[in-house]
Amino acid sequence: MSLETNRTRRSFAMHEAVAILSRTPATLDAQLRGLPDGWVQAHEGGQTWSPFDVVGHLIHGEQTDWIPRARMILEEGESRPFEKFDRFAQFDASRNRTLASLLDEFAALRGENLRQLAALHLTEADLDRRGRHPELGVVTMRQLLATWVAHDLDHLTQISRVLARQYSDEVGPWRAYLRIISGSQG
Amino acid sequence: MSLETNRTRRSFAMHEAVAILSRTPATLDAQLRGLPDGWVQAHEGGQTWSPFDVVGHLIHGEQTDWIPRARMILEEGESRPFEKFDRFAQFDASRNRTLASLLDEFAALRGENLRQLAALHLTEADLDRRGRHPELGVVTMRQLLATWVAHDLDHLTQISRVLARQYSDEVGPWRAYLRIISGSQG
Questions:
Q1: Whole-prediction pTM value?
Q2: How many Å apart are CA B2 and CA A19, to the nearest integer?
Q3: What is the pLDDT of residues B86-131, one digit of tens each?
Q4: Nearest CA to CA, how far is B19 from chain A (Å)?
Q5: How many angstroms separate the CA of residue B68 from the nearest CA in chain A?
């Protein structure tokens, strides 16, 4: 038996994080642009979010969360906590917008933020620099940037899950095989 | 209080199913093509699948599952069960392939299968026609096609989940907020 490389965890590497972050706008665009409106506005009941809501949330993150917090770590360290992130800002901000315009805005903001990230020329030592989250306490630049990546992927998962569950009844007996509908983790 | 339209379930509609099915190749392409190999080969431990494995699995579905089964429903009805689907075929079939070539093949097969689906000119009555699944028993054409859609979305969810979990440690205290890592359903 040979020792296999660990395929379940990766260490943070800036070029890999950027590879994923830079792909999110086109991924969302390919999946959602032009989709019938009933799917774009679909959700999982109650106060859960639709794909439309998620894109608005991602826009708000580009505007107020990731790069502004990275700058705060560099400029203020642990001395002042980050601004709290408003998880509901998109409900007002996206009102009367089209999905197409939200996708365009997200792509533009993400591109600009990745240019700003590159311009910071962060070193390995910078990745260890610390800031203060208003609820989670001390966090590092590396953790902030890894979370930016995982947060994108979390919401991509959410979008496909919301869409899949629209057919929870229509799939009939196949429901048992579809983990996203049956709820079992696979 | 007004009655809100149900946003948690949709009835099967052919043009909507095709809208989703036709977007999957470009969605996978945008997310995965050119991603560093460590991410393409990442998995969740044990016998779980990587993004590379998932694309191979989707290819095998195009070759042996969806359209062949639709034809069996039309030609044989409930008289003969579908061929069993091999959930592990991709491990041999994808060996020594590049992700780029798998993405190309999947896109070509999906395009051809959607052309074949259109050429079947299925009516509403056809969607009620029945076939026999080797394990699940009697199923309808509508259920088969809805499952094709949900199956795509299930695996898109899987890919983003596998990628996100690679940073389970790197996100530090933010782990608590990332449902895809913490494991809570949101």
A1: 0.96
A2: 45
A3: 888 888 998 999 999 999 999 999 999 999 999 999 999 999 999 9
A4: 6
A5: 17
CB contact under 8 A, A154 and B50: no
pLDDT > 90? residue A180 = no
- Sign of the Cα pseudo-torsion (A16, A19, A24, A30, in order): negative
pLDDT at A16: 98
For residue A69, which of A153, A139, A150, A135 has the smallest C-alpha distance? A139
Q: Which two tokens stand for residue B138?
A: 């009697």
Residue type, A4: E
Rounded CA separation B165/B182 (Å): 9
CB contact under 8 A, B39 and A19: yes
The pLDDT value given to residue A90: 86
Task: Transcribe chain B into DSSP letters.
Answer: -PPPPP-S-----HHHHHHHHTTHHHHHHHHHTT--HHHHT--SSTTPPPHHHHHHHHHHHHHHTHHHHHHHHHHHTTSSBPPPP-TTHHHHHTTT--HHHHHHHHHHHHHHHHHHHHHT---HHHHT-EEEETTTEEEEHHHHHHHHHHHHHHHHHHHHHHHHHTTTTTTGGGGGG-HHHH----
Which 3 state secondary structure label does DSSP give A131?
strand
What is the enclosing helix (H) or strand (E) of A133? strand A130-133
